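Bit of a strange request maybe. I'm writing a small parser for structure token strings and I need a real example to test against, not something I typed by hand. Could someone generate the tokens for this chain?
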Amino acid sequence: MKTSMLATVICASALLLPVVASASDDMQAVQGSVVFAQNCHACHSEDSSKNTFGPSLTGVVGRKAGSLPRFAYSDALRASGITWNEDKLRLWVQDNEKLVPGTRMRHVSITDKAEQDYLIAYLKTL
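Reply from user aminoacidic:
Good idea to test on real output. This should exercise your parser:
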């Protein structure tokens, strides 16, 4: 009896894990929207049809750096060869001038790992 109850609990937990993980991702993205508003929104749009002082960040995850049409990137960023994945985005928001010397973007310096996680989770939703 105890074994079958334990098996039921384990199976139920396994079924709920993706739901819990998804809720966690959603909460991180919500927090990331706050980090975005505080650190990025002044220069970057969340609208794919609008570049502002900086390029739109819609679809940035997986995109080659310096490749969005209708935006004048620095030569350094266009030549960087970077594709924006989680690791590169983390390095960029921590110290973009160190990652790509000669970039025109001002240094943002989001060094808190949790804030980086939140921001990246949010950027994945755009």
